[in-house]
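Long-time lurker, first post.

We've been arguing in lab meeting about whether S-adenosylmethionine would sit comfortably in this protein at all. Half the group thinks yes, half thinks no, and nobody has a model to point at. So I'm putting the question to the forum: if I give you the sequence and the SMILES, can you give me back a predicted structure of the complex? Inputs are below. Any interpretation is welcome too.
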Amino acid sequence: MDGEFVPADYFRKLERREICRDGRPLEVDLGCGDGSFLLAMARHHPDRDFLGVERLLGRVRKVCKKLTRHHLGNARVLRLESRYVIEWLLPEAAVSRVHLLCPDPWPKARHHRRRLVQTEFLTAVRRVLVPGGEFLFMTDHEEYFRWTEDKIAVCGKFERLAWDDASFFYPKSDFQQLWESAGKSMWRLRCRKSEVRDGS
Ligand SMILES: C[S@@+](CC[C@H](N)C(=O)[O-])C[C@H]1O[C@@H](n2cnc3c(N)ncnc32)[C@H](O)[C@@H]1O
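Top reply:
Settle the argument with this. Predicted structure of the protein with S-adenosylmethionine, as tokens:
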């Protein structure tokens, strides 16, 4: 499919040049859903490259169609599980921003281990980020937000940054629009990879 990114080998780390044009910043949207956010970002930033990650084939197909229809050559979609992509596939210091928007909150305590945000995941996010790269997280679920704040604090290798509406261009994702139109508030967390000199 046009717009789909299919790794040559799923069992070796990608090289940056496979996912991104020379010298361009790369941004990754985990669980990109219908691709609203991905497309708006790609359109607004033709000088950056984008990789959406989505595990559902139907959604990947729809996003690919939209990318083709809008002639957006700077965004592609990878049909795979987000944790695998972050922990095993992406190379070190390759990504400028990792976006995790409206992820499944797995509200029941016995399901919390299924949440994407875990200590190992954050360690891997930090590894794939370039120096000064950012992790941006948004949810309507306060408890998942607090959970993520705690994990970030425990990880100790990120610096919290302010994030207000006027900070920079940040289009609303499909789910954000859905939740806000239902009267829900969004919880947002933005942090930067801090320069801890420990080799990680
Ligand atoms: C609640 S929707 C949010 C979609 C989009 N980020 C938004 O804000 O509109 C979550 C999306 O993440 C995808 N997803 C959930 N877990 C995933 C995982 N582990 N790896 C890849 N995609 C995942 C789902 O298929 C779904 O499209």
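For your lab meeting: The mean pLDDT is 95. The pocket of S-adenosylmethionine is lined by residues 31-33, 53-56, 59, 81-83, 101-104, 116, 173-176 (CB under 6 Å). Whichever side wins, do check it experimentally.
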